[in-house]
Amino acid sequence: MRDLKWKDAIKKVLEEEKKALHYTVIAELIAEKEYRKSLGATPQDTVSANLTTDINKNKEKSIFAKVDRGYYILRKFLDDKTQLLTDDDDVIINKKEKTKSEKLRIINSFGLYWNRNLVHWKTKPDLLGVQQIGATSVNFKNQIGIYLLHDSRETIYVGQAIEQSLGQRLRHHTVDRLGGRWDRFSWFGFYPVIDNGELKDNLEFENITVQDFGNILEAILIESIEPRQNRKQGNLFYGIEYLQKESPEIKRQKKEQLIRELTDKL
């Protein structure tokens, strides 16, 4: 396994692909090709930050070029410089919108249709997720936000985890009147994730209008229900989706069960 610096790993991926890629795809390819030993908990954010920093610092001398929102290419592969989209252009065109969106980044992480059976509920439950395969796992048990409970057909309950954490609220639903009615859950978290995998819980929000609340609620519904006629994410939705990771205790129990079954057959 090679252990390249982030910038070198990004460059190598773009060199091999010879086309513009979204920064999330670049991060996934770095992991797939094993160009780094450690990806941290937020590899996609790290790739985006490295590209943005290099372009802002080196301008036209940067080896990278931005050709669309989130899409980057090696500058030497550009066919026509008119397709360049610099961060300076973004600021000029959308300065007010960007400033507002940064202040109203409320949904920072989310998980869709996580499996109830992959969580060990008997103790204080660990809600483990990864930004992508190979990334450091993040424990969302202390996350706060909005959650949904699903059965095999539909969403049966929507709740908020504010005064109690997400882990506490979900554990309560394993023993209350809803206990036998749900097998999956989705969640939308307010706390951002930092590179070491911890949750940043010192949140500060600017003034939020009624329209802002409407946009946020719309975004949550679009992401969770996925209506066929909605062709884009809701407004003010900037969260990163996390893939569920099985609880180590559940994995251990499955292994013990398999050993018992094999022993019984002998």
Sheet-strand content, in percent, reads 15-25%
Helix/strand structural class:
alpha+beta
Counted up, domains total: 2
Give me the Rg, rounded: 21 Å
Distance between the termini: 41 Å
Oligomeric category: single chain
**Which strand order do you get reading across the main beta sheet?**
8-7-9-4-10
The count of DSSP E runs of length 2 or more, i.e. the number of strands, is: 11
Instruction: State the shape.
Output: globular
Mean pLDDT over the full residue set: 84
Most strands sheet: 5 strands, mixed
Order of helical and strand elements = HEHHEEHEEEEEHEHEEH
Helix segment count?
A: 7
Helix residue percentage = 25-40%
Residue windows where pLDDT falls under 50 for at least 5 positions: 87-103
Written account of the structure:
The chain has 266 residues and is of the alpha+beta class. The chain folds into two domains: 6-95; 109-252, no CATH class. It is 36% helix and 17% strand. It is built from seven helices and eleven strands. The protein has helices at 6-17, 23-32, 43-58, 87-103, 166-172, 210-225, 248-265, and strands at 21-22, 64-68, 71-74, 109-115, 128-130, 138-139, 145-150, 155-161, 184-189, 240-241, 243-244. Strands 8-7-9-4-10 form a five-stranded mixed β-sheet, with helices on both faces. Strands 1-3-2 form a three-stranded antiparallel β-sheet. Helix 1 packs across helix 2 (23-32) and helix 2 (23-32) crosses helix 3 (43-58). The protein is globular. It starts with 5 loop residues before the first helix and ends with a helix. Residues 4-77 form the HTH HARE-type domain. Pfam families: HARE-HTH.
